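Lecture 7 notes: from sequence to structure.
We start with the chain below.
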Amino acid sequence: QIQLMESGGGLVQPGGSLRLSCAASGFTLDDYAITWFRQAPGKEREGISCMTSSDGSTFYHASVKGRFTISRDNAKNTVYLQMNSLKPEDTAVYYCATDNTVLCEGSRSDMNYWGKGTLVTVSS
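Predicted structure tokens for the same chain:
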């Protein structure tokens, strides 16, 4: 059974950093790409970063490029999202998901499996 579980959220001041984790079970990171999404209050869920399963290529939304870094630890079957220089507008629930493909081409509606999310609040 495929499961995803996020952790690492919390309250952080503007300019601070957090590292989110997405622990996968029921498959390995060599099988499927993982996408990070976020949903801010009153807004739609948006994809912000993705890593392919095949060669580990990474992709970022313009709003987080240069500040966030996606990575993975195959031994732990976990994908990370390192978030630096956080801004109040980064406040959201963060989710990891997979569409059961190897590439980062799927949209939100293509995702088949989601974690329950972890809340990130950026505030002074």
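Points to note: The chain has a mean pLDDT of 96. The longest strand covers residues 18-25.
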